[in-house]
């Protein structure tokens, strides 16, 4: 999508969408590591309703828009579903993420929301996430100099 | 556990009820839906990490065209998340709170979360909300993997006596 096709409302609407998203994360308790850890330790399964409730709303929205609507008004982009390839990285990455989520009780969106609540110790986690993302990006860039990396770039 | 304790055990799985969770989840979905309906963007929260690194790093992974093109709106999306939570934490429930989870758990877990979401192509919002909502096999596999591993890890951490 070219930036020139964007309506002036593009960034304001992204902001408002993020605002609702963050407000929901705050109400849901996802922004609180203790609540997430309670879920993972089977002491409070309420988080099932957070992910389930959110996925039902997006599921209905994606299915309805791709079937019945034409183009997104602010980008003139045709409604699509963004499906990512299933490869080994999805499983290895999910495993590493799972260990991190189980240790800390934080995930990216919920950590940003936690900052908004004034939970300053969460900055340890956000600093860690940037560090982790940097290390994997650096490693993959370095690795892409060899043949395995080249095929990966092509398949993307 | 005797049979008469079963109803208690079931309600015991939801000691804080389900309404804040359900309402919060519906709002998370609604925020995602607003962005999608307006722009055809399925917004995940973790790409922000790599796309924001493109502002400060020359590493080619972060300077892929889609990251550089999306980094501005991802900053705005994240600012929206922070502000929305602030509306809750400072307007509706003034005072906020801080976590008791120890700093080394946050830092160490954060490093793994940052590496894992980017290698695995998404996180609880990208895969867990958008991907599962699209019935994407990739996302369902990713979410199933991280849920099982996270439960095992959290139980192990608890069994080792680490708290909070």
Individual helix count of chain A: 7
Shape of chain A: globular
3D shape of chain B = globular
Largest interface: pair, residues per side: A-B, 119 and 121 residues
Instruction: Compute the number of helices of chain B.
Output: 7
Task: Please state the average pLDDT score of chain B.
Answer: 93
Topology pattern of chain B, helix = H, strand = E:
HHHHHHH
Strand percentage of chain B lies at under 5%
Helical residue percent band of chain A: 55-70%
Strand share of the residues of chain A? under 5%
Helix/sheet category of chain B:
mainly alpha
Q: Rounded to an integer, what's the Rg of chain A over CA atoms?
A: 19 Å
Q: Give the number of domains of chain A.
A: 1
Largest sheet data of chain A: 2 strands, antiparallel
Profile the largest sheet of chain B: none
Which structural class is indicated by helix and strand composition of chain A? mainly alpha
Strands of chain B, total number = 0
Q: List low-pLDDT spans of chain A.
A: 147-156
Protein name (chain A): DUF6691 family protein
Keywords (chain A): Membrane, Transmembrane, Transmembrane helix
Transmembrane segments (chain A): 9-27, 47-69, 90-111, 117-135
Pfam families (chain A): DUF6691
Describe the 3D structure.
The complex is a heterodimer of chains A (156) and B (164). Chain A contains 7 helices and 2 strands. Chain A is mostly helical and 156 residues long. Chain A has one domain (3-155). In chain A, strands 1-2 form a two-stranded antiparallel ribbon. In chain A, α1 (10-28) crosses α5 and α5 packs antiparallel against α6 (122-143). The longest helix of chain A has 22 residues, at 47-68. Mean pLDDT of chain A is 91; it is low at 147-156. By secondary structure, chain B is mainly alpha-helical. The longest helix of chain B is centred in the middle third of the chain and has 28 residues, at 65-92. Chain B starts with 5 loop residues before the first helix and ends in a 5-residue tail after the last helix. Classes of the chains: A mainly alpha (156), B mainly alpha (164). At the A-B interface, α1, α2, α3, β1 and β2 of A face α2, α3, α4, α5 and α6 of B. Chain A: Keywords: Membrane, Transmembrane, Transmembrane helix. Chain A: It comes from Halocatena marina. Chain A: It holds the Pfam family DUF6691.
């Amino acid at each position: 999508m070219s930036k020139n096709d964007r309506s002036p409302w593009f960034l304001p609407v992204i902001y408002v969408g993020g605002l609702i998203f963050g407000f929901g994360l705050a109400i849901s308790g996802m922004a609180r590591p203790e609540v997430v850890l309670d879920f993972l330790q089977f002491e409070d399964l309420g988080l099932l309703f957070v992910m389930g409730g959110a996925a039902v709303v997006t599921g209905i929205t994606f299915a309805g828009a791709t079937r019945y609507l034409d183009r997104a008004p602010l980008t003139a982009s045709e409604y699509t579903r963004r499906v990512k390839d299933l490869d080994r990285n999805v499983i290895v990455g999910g495993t590493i993420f799972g260990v991190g989520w189980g240790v800390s009780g934080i995930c990216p969106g919920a950590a940003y929301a936690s900052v908004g609540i004034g939970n300053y110790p969460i900055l340890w986690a956000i600093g860690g996430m940037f560090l982790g993302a940097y290390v994997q990006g650096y490693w993959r860039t370095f690795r892409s100099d060899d043949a395995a990396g080249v095929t990966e770039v092509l398949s993307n | 556990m005797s049979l008469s304790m079963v109803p208690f055990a079931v309600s015991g799985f939801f000691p804080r009820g389900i309404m804040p969770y359900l309402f919060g989840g519906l709002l998370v979905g609604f925020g995602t839906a607003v962005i999608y309906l307006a722009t055809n963007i399925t917004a995940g929260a973790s790409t922000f990490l790599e796309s924001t690194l493109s502002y400060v790093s020359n590493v080619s992974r972060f300077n892929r065209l889609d990251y550089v093109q999306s980094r501005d709106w991802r900053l705005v999306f994240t600012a929206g998340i922070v502000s929305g939570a602030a509306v809750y934490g400072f307007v509706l429930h003034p005072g906020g709170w801080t976590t008791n989870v120890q700093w080394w758990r946050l830092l160490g877990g954060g490093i793994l979360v940052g590496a894992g979401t980017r290698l695995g192509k998404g996180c609880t919002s990208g895969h867990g909300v958008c991907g599962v909502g699209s019935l994407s096999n990739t996302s369902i596999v990713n979410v199933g993997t991280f849920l099982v591993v996270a439960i095992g890890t959290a139980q192990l951490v608890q069994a080792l006596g680490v708290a909070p």
